[in-house]
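hiii, so i know i said id send this last week but things got crazy w the move. better late than never?? heres the sequnce for the chain we talked about at the cafe, plus the structure i predicted for it. fair warning i was half asleep when i ran it
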Amino acid sequence: MKELVSMDPAIIHALARITPEEQRLRDGEALDRTLYATGHGFEIEAAKLLRQGQLITIRPHTRFVAFPRHSHDYVEIMYMCTGQTTHLIGGSPVHLQAGELLFLNQRASHAIQRAEVGDVAVNFIILPQFFDFAFQIVGTSNLLGRFLLGTLKTGSSEITHLLCHTADLLPVQNLVESMVWSLLNNEPGARRANQMRMALLLLDLLDHHDCIEVQREPGQGSPLVLAALREIEDDCRDASLSRVAETFHVSLPYLSALIRRATGSTFKELLQQKRLDRAQQMLRTTPLSVQAVAEAVGYETTSYFYSIYKKQFGITPKEYRDRLCNSDK
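okay and structure toks below
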């Protein structure tokens, strides 16, 4: 077996610095979702992380918190520098070890268990058009090409993620390190150079295709699942899984199991998440009272709304609004 390759210590040192956000989490504060999303479900947005005109950037994975289930409107590739992380994708655990890569399609839904100080990972945040050059080199008649074309361009593939056991592949390690270094140091002409490095990285993975684990979610693209998700999105106040089941003439237990298998969450959990995210958005953008916001998203009892809101976000709705008012002064 080849010797495990370690990333340049200077790069790891830069990535391992505890950020102000991580220090707050370490001190017991709740995750501030507004750093990642604007409230339409927990879909992390490229606009929050990329500067205007950027196609790719990196950021260290946020440690000291169990990162809740989320998706992205961009392509994410996580590289594990030291330690490990455990991801829950479609309800199944995926363990990412040092030197390994995890490719996640745009709509893959996953949660990440708490990472500690020695679990240093870097996330590549990538817009789909960044891969245009890689398509020309890799083509679409192979696993990686189909994954990119199907999931990164249209989000329609049933492949949710690719886990690449690359810890002993020297060319892969060198290419990842080169991309990280260039993005950390704002290397001139980095975009074109990194597009070429990405294409070479994919070619190396194709040469060692046995290192790639493919995960498919058979129910993810099901019209039944999509209809249930649309029910939540269109009317989170009165969304009803029974109504979807009746429309498609299927049993409620069957549809419930299908949704759980496809998303890793129950319909009730998905609906509650949507309601809370919508409530937070309304608290931020409207003058409505907390009681009116609770009723608008589907909660008749204000005390219950307070309870689940605090459980989710770590503060009460009133405290959240007070913080917003104080930050504007």
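btw The mean pLDDT is 85. thought thatd interest u
miss u guys!!
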